[in-house]
């Protein structure tokens, strides 16, 4: 790739990373404020974590709508409409009188933010394919993970001179900035001639096609299961770090942000070895790393181990996510370029929908127990391995056998 193409690739990655950043900022920035919000609304940990669950559901289910809309109407228009909704819902979160209204608005905020995530993936698939797509997604992942590094600390910085309300004012301003980037810095990547035609039934048929592809669903499930573990970490660590290990909100934000650095390291590994190792080999390395690191997490919490042991184990788990994410996206999308928006939506929805299931379970044993967190982490890793064996390796082996039989015939 020459220097001009590298600069174009970097520019596009920076723009798409800005869109993708809405998800992490929406989820992560208010985490350090969860205990404060619990006091403000006179609520409990489970109800406060339900606001996180609502945003994750919005991020997941919203992609199922935004993806097909972007296949039909192009990438720019649905994104701009969603960004306006994001600005309005973020501002409203700062004004709510009760926890119920807050949870509802968090869902709407998640739906709006989902457009940035799914459309960023679709634009990448519009522009690249094969090994180049893997390398670009790795670059995009590395850049976009600046958001998890920055967002918790940004939240702590805002709450140091304001209340939790200031976090949502900041998110509204962030929405305005990204709207400007979209309006003046993003070119349409999906020509009219390549857009999906037909009515709502045709869009449903596209989803049917995706769900009937067992290998595609296999990669979606593996990625989704592991990200469910990530969201268990997101929901659990504010209470584990601050209540059990008595860390300050600022120190929690620093340790939490280090996991974003770990994902960046994993994605950089993929970028370096892509082309030397097959995507399948890289994928399996990440899968086994996730299993061993999540096993270490469970052992640590059951033995009431140290903070450093939990931190190192979760750091390695995050590295595995950085490895698996870009490769699984390429492998899943390689046969579905014509409906990239819908395919990207399914991949994203699995992550956030499964994360919405695990995040409230972390607190079922109370604010002083990390055992549910450890159990969820190992369970998601095991389910990811099972999904790989049943839906990817088994189907791939059968396909290879059919090809050989045809060749011999």
UniProtKB/TrEMBL annotation:
PROSITE patterns: MFS (PS50850), SUGAR_TRANSPORT_1 (PS00216). It holds the Pfam family MFS_1. It is a multi-pass membrane protein. InterPro entries: Efflux_drug-R_Bcr/CmlA, MFS, MFS_dom, MFS_trans_sf, Sugar_transporter_CS. It is found in: Cell membrane. Coiled coil: none annotated. Keywords: Cell membrane, Membrane, Transmembrane, Transmembrane helix, Transport. The chain crosses the membrane at residues 12-33, 78-97, 103-124, 161-186, 215-240, 252-270, 282-303, 309-333, 345-365, 371-391. It comes from the Bacteria. Residues 12-399 form the Major facilitator superfamily (MFS) profile domain. Belongs to the major facilitator superfamily. Bcr/CmlA family. This is Bcr/CflA family efflux transporter. The gene is bcr_2.
């Amino acid at each position: 790739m020459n220097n001009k193409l590298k600069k174009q690739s970097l520019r596009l990655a920076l723009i798409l990373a800005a869109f993708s950043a809405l998800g992490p900022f929406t989820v992560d920035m208010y985490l350090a404020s969860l205990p404060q919000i619990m006091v403000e609304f006179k609520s409990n940990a489970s109800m406060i974590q339900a606001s996180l669950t609502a945003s994750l559901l919005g991020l997941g289910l919203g992609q199922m709508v935004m993806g097909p809309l972007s296949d039909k109407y192009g990438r720019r228009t649905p994104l701009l409409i969603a960004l306006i909704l994001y600005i309005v819902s973020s501002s409203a979160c700062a004004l709510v009188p009760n926890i119920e209204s807050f949870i509802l608005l968090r869902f709407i905020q998640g739906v709006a933010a989902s457009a940035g995530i799914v459309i960023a993936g679709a634009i990448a698939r519009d522009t690249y394919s094969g090994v180049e797509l893997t390398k670009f997604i790795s670059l995009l992942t590395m850049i976009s993970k600046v958001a998890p590094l920055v967002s918790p600390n940004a939240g702590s910085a805002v709450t140091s001179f304001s209340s939790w309300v200031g976090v949502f004012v900041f998110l509204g301003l962030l929405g305005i900035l990204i709207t400007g980037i979209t309006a003046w810095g993003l070119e349409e990547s999906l020509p009219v001639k390549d857009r999906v035609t037909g009515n709502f039934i045709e869009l449903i048929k596209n989803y049917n096609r995706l769900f009937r592809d067992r290998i595609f669903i296999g990669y979606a499930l593996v990625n989704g299961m592991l990200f469910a573990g990530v969201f268990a970490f997101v929901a659990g660590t504010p209470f584990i770090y601050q209540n059990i290990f008595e860390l300050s909100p600022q120190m929690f934000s620093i340790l939490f942000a280090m996991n974003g650095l770990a994902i960046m390291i994993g994605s950089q590994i993929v970028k370096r070895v892509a082309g030397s190792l097959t995507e399948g080999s890289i994928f399996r390395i990440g899968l086994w790393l996730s299993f061993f690191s999540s096993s270490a997490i469970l052992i640590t919490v059951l033995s009431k181990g140290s903070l450093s042991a939990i931190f190192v184990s979760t750091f390695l788990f995050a590295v595995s996510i950085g490895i698996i994410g870009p490769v699984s996206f390429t492998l899943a999308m390689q046969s579905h370029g014509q409906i990239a928006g819908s395919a990207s939506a399914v991949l994203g929805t699995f992550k956030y929908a499964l994360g919405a299931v695990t995040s409230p379970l972390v607190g079922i044993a109370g604010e002083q127990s990390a055992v549910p967190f450890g159990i969820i982490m190992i369970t998601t890793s095991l389910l990811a391995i099972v999904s790989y064996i049943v839906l990817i390796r088994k189907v791939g082996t059968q396909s290879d056998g059919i090809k050989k039989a045809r060749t011999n015939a």
